[in-house]
Design a protein that fits this description.
688 residues, Immunoglobulin-like, 4-stranded mixed sheet, 51 strands, cell membrane, transmembrane helix, Cadherin_CS, signal, PCDC1 protein
Length: 688
């Protein structure tokens, strides 16, 4: 959008100009949040915007004549930039002229020499007044102080411009009055009008009665703006009908021609050739100068002609690229068409030389779109992926249409910010873990690890156990996981005999918003340890008694007495059992198979053999270290099963002479005997 305001120059500071929020249809409350900025090419900030109300006011009074010099229309261009979203508005301020400058003359006084013999009607050019105001506020008319011999007339040049001339009303007599003092007054058309005066001193001469006359009242020329010093612009020519020194003409710039133009051009005093002197450092396409032709008479006469020089542009300015606004970093999920930056591309050359084309490399996911005049928006053309490319150096190339064209480049650095668009990733779909049973509490089991190509919070991974049950109990009663590094620890000791394997899932979740996650299955296999001794299944002793086997009294050799049967809850070699005979009341009578546990006789029974025998069998596994269990078997030699089984505590051998009961009886008897002897001894001593 674009909006135009008009404001009079020299408006005081703080004066209201308008309300930018209301005029543009913007909510004034959002101006501050949207980081509004006023951008201008001027060195001064002439206007302010109230961030709360949107009121536009004067920040500094404007001097139109200082700002725009002699331009007929004085404009100030501003751009209002708003962010979130990015918007650009153009504001144009038309500075209206007020009558704040009085007409003035270049010199403090002017001298005119008039031959006394001139007839009434002779004309003399008077100086033009200058007024920095424009239009009606500029110089409108001239007046001359009342004078008997002179009056004022206005003349029009070929280009329509007016200038004052002093006209002789009656013949002069130098002998009666050699000098006439006049006052020339210039008035503008302001309300109220302003004026400026300059003394005009007329000296009466009695020689040289013809002034030089130019061939043309207006000379026109055209040169290139890069013309070197010494280039001929135009040659003016004036003639003087007088003879001798009074007819010799010298050329110069009029005092009303600005000093800058007099330094920029030279005029040859004799030939009238106007040439370039130095660099044509002007922005105006048309330059106006007044050339004076004066003769060499004792009292030189002069006339003026106007020189209009048109400066033809050449392509000597390259495009200027200005970054007005830049949004960096850009989120990687930005949709195509998102505005990244606002660029101003301007070429100071006029016409085709100032027209510009611009582009960015086709290989980049960005493009330029024209916005307002001389403005372009840098937008995304494709989806971005920070994980592939995290930043871009975008080279903007601007080329004008001059011949030859001039190219300018500017590089914009744009960073891509991360969004949470990647879930954590494990290196495999499942892991197998082997854990020995009887592990200590808190034992390290395994460490899972997931990677996330995002950065910051979006790439920070935390680990949790997914809810599940193991053997009817909650998984969390078995395991725990470190939230930060994925280390898994045991919260209880595993028992291979109760639980041989199970599986669970670990979830890896990033800290993005919304969070993304992935899960992995961990298969846990419990490794067996030799923690169970063999269990004797047969023969079985009850209440601590010895298991009894009955063998025929005269059994043959290799007779199967019994078979020891055992089981081990462990696995593999920890459950491989071997049988060993560690004690026998008769070592020559029985033998035990180490692999089957069969107890057999080594010879035929004899009538002289004891009727009762006792053997001790050890069952041992192959663990490391090995564990074992023992069983005691009582063997009774009998042809029939007795009604009551004998006691095998004596192991089939004679009982010992000293047992605990006998020892107690002996001690008691000894004590009684000792006391009785002590009594008899005491009695004998008393009698003696």
């Amino acid at each position: 959008g674009q909006i135009v305001y008009s404001i009079a120059e020299e408006t005081e500071r703080g004066a209201s100009v308008g309300n930018i929020a209301k005029d543009l249809g913007i909510d004034a409350a959002t101006l501050s949040a949207r980081k509004f900025r006023m951008i201008t090419g001027s060195s001064k900030q002439y206007f302010n915007i109230n961030a709360s109300t949107g009121a536009l006011s004067v920040n500094e009074p404007i001097d139109r004549e200082q700002l725009c010099e002699l331009k007929s229309v004085c404009l100030l261009n501003y751009e209002l930039v708003l962010e979130n979203p990015l918007e650009l508005y153009r504001m144009e301020f038309k500075v209206l002229d007020i009558n704040d400058n009085s007409p003035s003359f270049p010199l403090s006084e002017y001298h005119i020499s008039v031959p006394e013999f001139l007839s009434p009607g002779a004309r003399f050019t008077l100086p033009n007044a200058q007024d920095l105001d424009e239009g009606a506020n500029s110089v409108q008319n001239y007046t001359l102080s009342p004078e008997e011999y002179f009056h004022l007339e206005m003349q029009i040049r070929g280009d329509g411009s007016k200038y004052p001339e002093l006209v002789l009303k009656k013949a002069l007599d130098r002998e009666q009055q050699a000098t006439h003092r006049l006052v020339l007054t210039a008035k503008d058309g302001g309300d109220p009008p302003k004026s400026g005066d300059v003394p005009v001193i007329v000296t009466v001469l009695d020689t040289n009665d013809n002034a030089p006359e130019f061939e043309h009242s207006v000379y026109r020329a055209s040169i290139l703006e890069n013309s070197p010093s010494g280039t001929l612009v135009v040659q003016v020519h004036a003639t003087d009908l007088d003879e001798g020194p009074n007819g010799e003409v010298r050329y110069s710039f009029s005092n009303t021609t600005s000093a800058d133009l007099q330094r920029m051009f030279l005029i040859h005093p004799h030939t009238g050739e106007v040439t370039v002197n130095g660099v044509l450092a002007v922005q105006r396409p048309l330059l106006e100068m007044l050339i004076e032709a004066r003769d060499n008479g004792a009292f030189g006469m002069s006339s003026t002609a106007k020189l209009l020089v048109e400066i033809t542009d050449v392509n000597n300015h390259g495009p200027e690229i200005t970054i007005t606004s830049l949004s960096s970093p850009v989120p990687e999920d930005a949709v195509p068409g998102t505005v990244i930056a606002l660029l101003s591309i301007l070429d100071k050359d006029p016409g085709e030389n100032g027209k510009v084309t611009c582009q960015v490399p086709d290989s980049l996911p960005f493009q330029l779109k024209p916005s307002l005049q001389n403005y372009y928006s840098l937008v995304t053309s494709e989806l971005l992926d920070r994980e592939l490319i995290s930043e871009y150096n975008i080279t903007i190339t601007a080329t004008d249409l001059g011949s030859p064209p001039i190219t300018t480049q500017k590089t914009v650095w744009v960073q891509i910010s991360d969004v949470n668009d990647n879930p954590p990733v494990f290196s495999a779909d499942a892991f197998d873990v082997f854990v020995e049973e009887n592990n200590p509490l808190g034992a390290f089991i395994y460490q899972v690890s997931a990677s996330d190509p995002d950065i910051g919070e979006n790439g920070q991974v935390s680990y949790t156990l997914r809810n599940s049950t193991v053997a009817g109990s909650a998984l969390t009663s078995f395991l725990s996981v470190n939230l930060a590094n994925g280390s898994i620890y045991a919260k209880r000791a595993f028992d291979f005999e109760q639980l041989r394997s199970f599986y669970f899932q670990v979830e890896a979740k990033d800290n993005g918003s919304p969070a993304l996650s992935a899960a992995i299955t961990v298969n846990v296999y419990i490794s067996d340890q030799n923690d169970n001794a063999p269990s004797i299944l047969y023969p079985v002793s009850q209440n601590g008694s010895v298991a009894v086997e009955v063998v025929p009294r005269l059994a043959d050799e290799d007779y199967l007495v019994t078979k020891v049967v055992a089981d081990d809850e462990d696995n593999a070699e920890n459950a491989w059992l071997s049988y060993h005979l560690v004690h026998s009341s008769d070592s020559t009578l029985f033998q035990l198979s180490p692999h089957t546990g069969e107890l057999r006789t080594t010879r035929s029974m004899r009538s002289t053999d004891f009727l009762k025998h006792k053997v001790v069998v050890v069952v041992r596994d192959h663990g490391d270290p090995p564990l074992s269990s023992t069983v005691t078997v009582g063997i009774l030699l009998a042809d029939t099963l007795p009604q009551a089984l004998p006691d095998f505590d004596d192991s089939g051998e004679p009982p010992p002479l000293l047992n605990a009961t006998n020892i107690y009886l002996i001690i008691s008897l000894a004590c009684v005997s000792f006391i009785f002897a002590a009594f008899l001894l005491s009695l004998a001593v008393v009698r003696l």
